[in-house]
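Ticket 4471: requesting a sanity check on a complex prediction with acetoacetyl-coenzyme A. Repro inputs:
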Amino acid sequence: MPAELAIGIHDLSVATTQYVLTHATLAAHNGSDVAKYQRGIGQRSMSVPAADEDIVTMAAAAAAPIVARHGAERIRTVVFATESSVDQAKAAGIHVHSLLGLPSATRVVELKQACYSGTAALQFAIGLVHRDRTEQVLVIASDVSKYDLGSPGEATQGAAAVAMLISADPALVRIEDPSGMFTADIMDFWRPNYRNTALVDGRESISAYLQAVEGTWKDYTERGGHKLDELSAFCYHQPFTKMAYKAHRHLLNYCGYEVDEARINGAIANTTAYNEVIGNSYTASVYLALAALLDTAGDLSGKAIGFLSYGSGSVAEFFAGTVVPGYRAHLRADAHREAIDRREDIDYARYREIHTHAFPVDGGDYPVPRETTGPYRLAGLSGHKRIYEPR
Ligand code: CAA
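Returned structure tokens:
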């Protein structure tokens, strides 16, 4: 597509939580060798939401700087991607719409398909901008990943939101055709409506992910996508950062390349800096990989990047984007680093208290203590309604 007709990511902003639990603290509690976490799965710490934080407060915190920079006049649609939704009916994006004071002439919707739906949101947004190039779409991927205490998944929890402004003539990344798609009916990871922690078959989930890498790549190349060598870096969904290395090794094997660790490092190493300290942020994870790549790598102007978005269950998509020359002037690297560095370390006892907290379900008034130092907070529950406010 000629550059002047391009559509893609015009701005990107990351937010995470008030607290952080290190894997050293988790290992000291459960007797694991910390190397299993730091080297084995490639994780150093995980974001933990305060009592007055959730997917809405993180989403609003991520999106507010975008609205402040570009205004809201052209945003006609907000698509909120999540698998840790706060309501079965109302879209979480409506709370964000209200907190940010967006115009009433806006369409707001929530999308779900495990960790994949951020990419569905991006592709739907591109379709809307194709229809009217003057419109912009605010895509927000926000999730809190939660597994049972003491389960193998516990070390892969985390929480973050990534907000992206999708528009014509984007400043950061032009998203290209084609996409490679893959769907398979697999129960590798799921969360029934009556549970607030996910269920997972860990080993099955890893092989399902690798099967999806093959399936998407096959469809992508059959539709005329880039050759592997034409892609400078690969942003994979990162439930834990070692998964990106496993996936890329698998892709190289599948394409008949010698497995060369230096080549794998070159493709992946710049994409993991945020995920390894934030943990799994489900829908946001692949776009946190992009944020880390853009913020920390050398000049990528004009380079093509591959994206592999995987959502258990499973749906996956492989697509590519080209980094726009001049993109570095539009990055938010300092704010992203600040959002990560300002988190307060918590000990295991505090983490456990937060993990086991659940609101009563009787519809009473339950104000939430002030904990977050972020811009928005969950003030409480009243009459079964969540009340949000600027802090
Ligand atoms: N030093 C260095 N490495 C060590 C070590 C040590 N002391 N001890 C173990 N390791 C290595 C192991 O060799 C292993 O590496 P390989 O996989 O490369 O062999 C790694 O550390 C993990 O060890 P285990 O497999 O023994 O760990 P585990 O059984 O406790 O669980 C897990 C690992 C299955 C990933 C688990 O954390 C889990 O279930 N996580 C949730 C599911 C998940 O993230 N799945 C990913 C694909 S699904 C997806 O992507 C969607 C999503 O977001 C959920």
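Notes from triage: The chain has a mean pLDDT of 97. Leaving this open until the requester confirms.
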